[in-house]
TrEMBL record:
Summary of subunit composition and partner proteins: Homodimer.
SUPFAM superfamilies registered for this protein in UniProt: CBS-domain pair, MgtE membrane domain-like, MgtE N-terminal domain-like
GO terms assigned for molecular function: magnesium ion transmembrane transporter activity; metal ion binding
InterPro entries xref list: CBS_dom (IPR000644), CBS_dom_sf (IPR046342), Mg_transptr_MgtE_intracell_dom (IPR006668), MgtE_N_sf (IPR038076), MgtE_transporter (IPR006669), SLC41_membr_dom (IPR006667), SLC41_membr_dom_sf (IPR036739)
Entry protein name: Magnesium transporter MgtE
Entry function: Acts as a magnesium transporter.
Domain CBS span(s) in chain numbering: 145-208, 209-267
Superkingdom of this protein's organism: Bacteria
UniProt lineage: Bacteria, Bacillati, Bacillota, Bacilli, Bacillales
Transmembrane segments: 291-311, 317-344, 365-386, 392-418, 430-453
Family listed: Belongs to the SLC41A transporter family.
Amino acid sequence: MMEETKIRDEELNEELMHELLGKGDVEAFREEFLSHHPYDQASFYEKADGETRQLLYQYLSPKEMADIFEAIEVDDDEYENLFKEMDTRYASDILSYMYTDDAVDVLNELNKDQVASYLTIMDKESAQQIKDLLHYEEYTAGSIMTTEFVAIPKNSTVRSAMNILRNAAPNAETIYYVFVIDEDRKLSGIVTLRDLIVADEDTLIEAIMNDRVVSVQVSEDQEEVARMIKDYDFLALPVVDFQDHLLGIITVDDIIDVLDEEASDDYSKLAAVSDMDTFDRGPLTAAKKRLPWLILLTFLGMLTANLMGMFEATLDQVALLAVFIPLIAGMAGNSGTQALAVAVRGIATGDIEEESKLKLLFREAGTGLITGVICGIVVVGLVYFWKSELLIGMLVGTAVASSIFVATLAGSFIPLLIHRMKIDPAVASGPFITTLNDIISILIYLGLATTFLTNL
């Protein structure tokens, strides 16, 4: 695998590219550069400085640059800077040559003045297709679908369908699925390229199409779309309105981007980071992203400190109790985070349906009880052999067992509750669950200590 990666990285010789650019040898540069995959071209473009990019705009056509922008992987806020350094007409042409869904993704990251400018000078057909998608809410099926697909009337023959396919193929994002529509453009069925190839030319499409088509509503959340494509192993999924009119399709390459985006977003929230930091961000930018969460957690931490202050008399009488506070809080936090991870993953993958949520809670409660009791017994033994204090060991062990049980139950219940409230369950992030469990474990531990203080 490492050797394959090394070979791929060396396919595009960056030194040669810079040398040809420096010499101004346009033909030699174009011949070498365009012989590589758009991914490698995009990698070169991303690493290039402003001066090199200006040369690229001179040497490459808008259509060739459109292929690069469809493969590019830069931060969303970088698109605005990249398009500002181009001629307006050139940038507009790039967008018109891109697949509609990719162009919309880029335009969503630009300011309104830039968007209006590009759409104004763009050819009317491309501009209208982009406008049709821009008004859909972000993170829905409509916002990630493309309108470049092949549709054929269900009363046509295989021969006429193949003619339609040949004419539409150069601009279609995929030709392996051909969608069948009626006279009102309602989705009626689907045929594959294989179906068309093996069928007799005079056969009616209606006779060979599959009329049991899986589709999604245009307002469907992109996570649900990704789940459907994963479950059914589709290459593309049709998007319809509430009357079943075919509006567009979502291809598997777009879903891969969605899965990557959603995974990064959920991981960011689980770490209590509002937006995943990237390595090219400066310390000031990264700090601004993290500070709101840290300040909020500071206030929650003060609540924990205030709770400990309420039990100051108990701690003064038996100072040894304070030694075990980090142990109890830490074990409760760890068990709560484990339960949280299981619940959030189950919700994200769709494994947790309505009927299995109660089952999950009972399972986690049982898990918390078993792990809590075992850990509690181990702690009793350790405290006794370390401090020769059986009563304190039993107190600490009971607190550990109770804290782990409650923390595990809370770690699974809270994301389910938040999901029920139509909020992203990932906001029940690790640090929040940990802080909450700190409060719970301290209340349990010092509450038990205060109750049994007379026996210590």
